[in-house]
């Protein structure tokens, strides 16, 4: 882990492409403002985000922190509940198992209007908020002398 310039892996779910683009814009703006290097990989949906992070870890790629970006909008079936719960659980499991600094930027909303209100960089900017949360957790790791 570089103490001078952290390197963050952004895992971006592209299921709702326009919302994903907006979340990514907020996140990268926050990371760039902090002087952080970042690499982005894309996955089909939020459910696949934890697996991509696990692949990076198993593949030996060293990142200082991880940022999960995506959106899940409730539909007519229980699929929403499984995707939301399991993607969150997967990220928390990885965080605890490996001591990762993770920013959770997966929107879980009832409709598209709620998604836009949260993603919009001029409103709630949840992409930027998740990036800042990742950096805050990275700072706490360093405070306690933990490394990747």
TrEMBL record:
Keyword Glycoprotein set for record: no
Any one GO molecular-function label of the UniProt entry: 6,7-dimethyl-8-ribityllumazine synthase activity
Recorded catalytic activity of this chain's protein: (2S)-2-hydroxy-3-oxobutyl phosphate + 5-amino-6-(D-ribitylamino)uracil = 6,7-dimethyl-8-(1-D-ribityl)lumazine + phosphate + 2 H2O + H(+)
Binding residues annotated for 5-amino-6-(D-ribitylamino)uracil, in chain numbering: 15, 46-48, 71-73, 104
GO biological process: riboflavin biosynthetic process
Annotated binding of (2S)-2-hydroxy-3-oxobutyl phosphate, by residue: 76-77, 118
UniProt KW Chloroplast keyword: no
UniProt keyword annotations, A-Z: Riboflavin biosynthesis, Transferase
Record-linked Pfam families: DMRL_synthase (PF00885)
EC number(s) reported in the record: 2.5.1.78
Main enzyme class: transferase
Annotated metabolic or biological route of this protein: Cofactor biosynthesis; riboflavin biosynthesis; riboflavin from 2-hydroxy-3-oxobutyl phosphate and 5-amino-6-(D-ribitylamino)uracil: step 1/2
GO cellular component: cytosol; riboflavin synthase complex
Free-text function comment from the UniProt entry: Catalyzes the formation of 6,7-dimethyl-8-ribityllumazine by condensation of 5-amino-6-(D-ribitylamino)uracil with 3,4-dihydroxy-2-butanone 4-phosphate. This is the penultimate step in the biosynthesis of riboflavin.
Family (UniProt): Belongs to the DMRL synthase family.
Protein name, per record: 6,7-dimethyl-8-ribityllumazine synthase
Gene: ribH1
């Amino acid at each position: 882990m570089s103490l001078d310039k952290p390197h963050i892996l952004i895992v971006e779910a592209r299921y709702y492409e326009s919302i994903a683009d907006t979340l990514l814009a907020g996140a990268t703006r926050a990371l760039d403002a902090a002087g952080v290097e970042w690499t982005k990989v894309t996955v089909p949906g939020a459910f696949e985000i934890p697996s991509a992070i696990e692949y990076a870890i198993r593949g030996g790629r060293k990142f200082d922190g991880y940022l999960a970006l995506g959106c899940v909008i409730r539909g007519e079936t229980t699929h929403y509940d499984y995707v939301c719960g399991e993607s969150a659980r997967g990220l928390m499991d990885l965080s605890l198992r490996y001591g990762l600094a993770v920013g959770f930027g997966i929107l879980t909303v009832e409709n598209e209007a709620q998604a836009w209100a949260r993603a919009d960089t001029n409103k709630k900017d949840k992409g930027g908020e998740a990036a800042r949360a990742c950096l805050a957790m990275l700072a706490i790791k360093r405070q306690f002398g933990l490394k990747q």
